[in-house]
Specification:
This protein is α/β, with parallel strands linked by helices. The chain contains nine helices and nine strands. The strands form two sheets. A six-stranded mixed beta sheet has the order 5-6-7-3-8-9, with helices on both faces. A three-stranded antiparallel beta sheet has the order 2-1-4, covered by helices on one side. The N and C termini lie far apart (102 Å).
Length: 276
């Protein structure tokens, strides 16, 4: 027979519930990519929280584009694992593609379609209804100042116009994670401000943005966290203030100053006597 608890006996303390931690939007563990024995990405491990505007930086040839291609299913890693919104692309690539948008540095567009036709095609490929695809395409063309050129073939678009129509196609299905590889190359300053304002707005609404650019002042202005890779390896990750502290570069150092120190870049060169 069980004993009754005395009214004056305090109850045993209960453990507070452990808060559930949401999975990161992007998680890489030990990611590696080799091309014929040459290592392009070497044991890359990082996590990007949901809704972060994340800058992914490195010098030319550091492995940025290769990493993005693995994250978006265009390349298979040699080793390591990837999870996007908790999903492993190796197990459910279509599931990952439904929730991501991609703007690659190289633009493999269907050049014999008009800008409007390309967006209608993209929307239908993502499973949107005809009416919803039309509505979103119209809004994107207008927002990105492409409405007057909607009927022009993409082959006749400028580089900046191609970038904008490719960005519109990456956005038309309302992705939760957006991968942007040098999105501002070739875009004029007015359109560039429209694009960066749009990206900032998306980030505030909870869209995770994974962003590479060599325009470091734009990265410094937009991104709330950055990672820097060099020769395929991660050399720093955190907010700019955190990286300044880690690398002891001074509280007022620009992102450019921090970046050059991280990659040990020697920017001083002797003059070319035969010029000028």
């Amino acid at each position: 027979m069980s004993e009754e608890r005395d009214a004056n006996t305090p109850e045993a303390p209960t453990e507070p519930p452990i808060p559930s931690v949401p999975a990161p939007a992007i998680e890489l563990t030990g990611l590696r990519k080799e091309f014929r024995g040459t290592v392009a990405v070497d044991d890359l491990t990082l996590r990007v929280g949901r809704g972060r505007f994340f800058g992914f930086l490195g010098p030319n040839g550091a492995g940025k584009s290769t990493t993005i291609k693995m994250l978006t299913g265009l390349l298979s890693p040699t080793a390591g694992s990837i999870r996007i919104e908790g999903v492993d692309p190796a197990q459910d690539l279509l599931g990952v593609k439904r929730v991501i948008g991609v703007l690659p540095e190289e633009l493999p567009l269907y050049e014999r379609l008009s800008g409007e036709e390309y967006l209608l095609f993209a929307g239908r490929m993502y499973g949107l209804s005809r009416a919803e695809t039309r509505r979103r395409a119209d809004e994107l063309l207008d927002f990105l100042s492409l409405a007057e050129d909607r009927g022009k073939l993409i082959v006749d678009y400028s580089q900046g116009m191609r970038k904008k129509v490719a960005l519109a196609a990456a956005l038309i299905h309302s992705p939760r994670v957006l991968f942007l590889d040098e999105p501002l190359n070739g875009i004029d300053p007015v359109s560039g401000r429209v694009v960066t304002d749009l990206l900032s707005s998306l980030s505030k609404k909870g869209v995770t943005i994974f962003f590479t650019s060599h325009v470091l002042d734009v990265v410094e202005r937009l991104c709330d966290e950055v990672a820097v890779i060099d020769r395929g390896r991660l050399v720093a990750q955190g907010t700019l203030d955190e990286i300044r502290t880690q690398r002891e570069v001074g509280g007022h150092a620009s992102l450019e100053d921090v970046f050059l120190k991280l990659v040990a870049a020697d920017v001083k060169r002797p003059d070319l006597a035969w010029l000028g």
